[in-house]
Specification:
The protein starts with a strand and ends in an 11-residue tail after the last helix. It has eleven helices and eleven strands. The protein has helices spanning 28-36, 52-61, 84-95, 117-133, 147-156, 175-184, 203-212, 216-225, 238-243, 254-261, 307-310, and strands at residues 4-6, 12-14, 17-19, 26-27, 42-44, 70-75, 102-105, 140-143, 163-167, 187-191, 292-293. It has one domain (4-319): NADP-dependent oxidoreductase domain (TIM Barrel, Alpha-Beta Barrel). The protein has a seven-stranded parallel sheet with strand order 3-5-6-7-8-9-10. It has a two-stranded antiparallel sheet with strand order 1-2. By secondary structure, the chain is α/β, with parallel strands linked by helices. Helix 2 crosses helix 3 and helix 7 (203-212) crosses helix 8. Keywords: Oxidoreductase. GO terms for molecular function: oxidoreductase activity. It holds the Pfam family Aldo_ket_red. Residues 16-263 form the NADP-dependent oxidoreductase domain.
Length: 321
């Protein structure tokens, strides 16, 4: 079993999960292998990636009960404000689940056409809190939030985010942001933990890997989880999927951690969000370019209601699938 960490509301989250970003395509067999054979229980996706429906088919067809999985997806900015409930309902329908373990706001940025940006961010978080308070989601979070973004959210939040998912790897990490989040009780969750493989041939990294008898990728993942940062590498290769979970049988020394952390540079940030507002209206999953492989046709209907989570709810049952 993959070890877990605990969110501020006592929900346990696996330290290693499967990333499903739309870069590189979607391979149904690889997702099933990760769950059935490699022990992955955390599945991280987003509306933007365009693979929620495919993941729903995989989750329905895997050998692991839904209650043993930790499923998280993200709200895209065009659905912020009064579109939160509909976006949540649609994601759940595609994922074939009547609840989420973690629902995140994908980023603090909003489309340029929204004039009252701060008010919209506040309204969005209010709706996220309602989903949490009414048991539609087990935890709520944000992604790509800076210290300033978290400060703004803290001014109006009744419930602070349980997690903030950010780019986090040895070549780019924000210690000040992580420290600030730790003080708030907001768990830092990492994406892009291998920096898309750009620096895995680094000489010092390879020396540390050789010392521990591990691959450079495993050292990067261990660097994250040893700091209690859950991380979600993506792979479609069965051997790498298994390798990515085998990082709990060794420890990096303080010297190892310090050397790896010293790599960090703003210039080595992988994900560029500087022009993201110009891309917000692009189709979800546009980076897939049709690369979706091995997904069978659904053989039965998706459940259409959720009476359990609607019970004693302030939100109407129509919010659920």
């Amino acid at each position: 079993m993959i070890p877990t960490t605990t969110l501020s509301n006592n929900i346990e989250m696996p330290l290693i999960g499967l990333g499903t970003t739309h870069s590189g395509g979607y391979y149904h067999d690889a997702v099933l292998h990760s769950i059935n054979k490699c022990g992955y229980r955390l599945i991280d996706t987003a509306k933007r990636y365009g693979v929620e429906r495919q993941l729903g088919i995989a989750l329905k067809g895997c050998s692991v009960p839904r209650e043993e999985m930790f499923l998280c997806t993200k709200l895209w900015p065009v659905d912020c404000g009064d579109g939160v409930f509909d976006a949540f309902r649609t994601s759940c329908e595609k994922l074939q689940s009547d609840y989420l373990d973690l629902y995140m706001i994908h980023m603090p940025h909003l489309p340029d056409w929204i004039r009252k940006q701060k008010e919209t961010r506040e309204e969005t978080w209010r709706q996220m809190e309602l989903l949490y308070e009414d048991d539609h989601v087990r935890s709520i979070g944000v992604s790509n939030y800076s210290i300033e973004d978290l400060e703004e959210l803290s001014d109006f939040a009744s419930v602070l985010p349980h997690a903030n998912q950010i780019e986090f790897h040895p070549w780019f990490h924000q210690n000040d942001l992580k420290s600030y989040s730790d003080e708030l009780g907001v768990l830092t969750m990492g994406y892009c933990p291998l920096a898309k493989g750009k620096y895995l041939d680094d000489e010092i990294l390879c020396q540390i890997a050789n010392k521990h008898g591990k691959s450079p990728a495993q050292i990067c993942l261990r660097w994250s989880v040893q700091q209690n940062v859950p991380t979600v590498p993506k792979s479609t290769d069965t051997k790498r999927l298994e390798e990515n979970t085998n990082v709990f049988d060794f420890e990096l020394s303080e010297e190892d951690l310090a050397q790896l952390s010293s790599f960090s540079s703003q210039k080595k940030k992988i994900v560029d969000l500087s022009n993201i507002c110009s891309k917000m209206s692009l189709p979800d999953g546009y980076k897939l370019n049709g690369r979706v492989f091995g997904v069978p046709e659904e053989s039965s209907e998706i459940p259409r209601n959720c009476s359990e989570c609607a019970r004693d709810s302030k939100v109407s049952v129509s919010v659920c699938i």
